[in-house]
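re: that chain from earlier
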Amino acid sequence: MTRLRAWPLWETPNTFIGYLLAVLGVYSAVGVALLAGTRRTFGDLFGYAVLLGCAALCVEATRRLGKAAGVVSDLQSAWTLPVALLLPPVYALLAPVPLKALSQLRVGRSLVYRRVLSAVAIGWRTVPPPKSSTCCLPARRGAPRC
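^ sequence. v structure.
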């Protein structure tokens, strides 16, 4: 329990902790909803595993190259973008999570909450909006109706 109290997260303002918990809650809820609504096929799982493996190789290459502090030169986005384009949205939402965990373990220690927020931001970036989201907008004259 004392290790939990020693986390640097507790030194941040309470509003930030609330924000982090809210973002994680929404991200997890969307992930569970997408996971429940996605039909998983062997081809999708295999493609996801291959692309994630390639991204993991890039993380390892980054570790071996060694960069100056503060310089980020990994190619994770080069592998998460094909996940977003070729596979169902749930895979794009979940792909940054294992990659950021691997980066934390293998490349360099960082504050965990920063890696978590980074994974969430990357996940949100790669998930396309639902097709029905444009139906909430008022229709323009001559525009097709939903």
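The radius of gyration is 18 Å.
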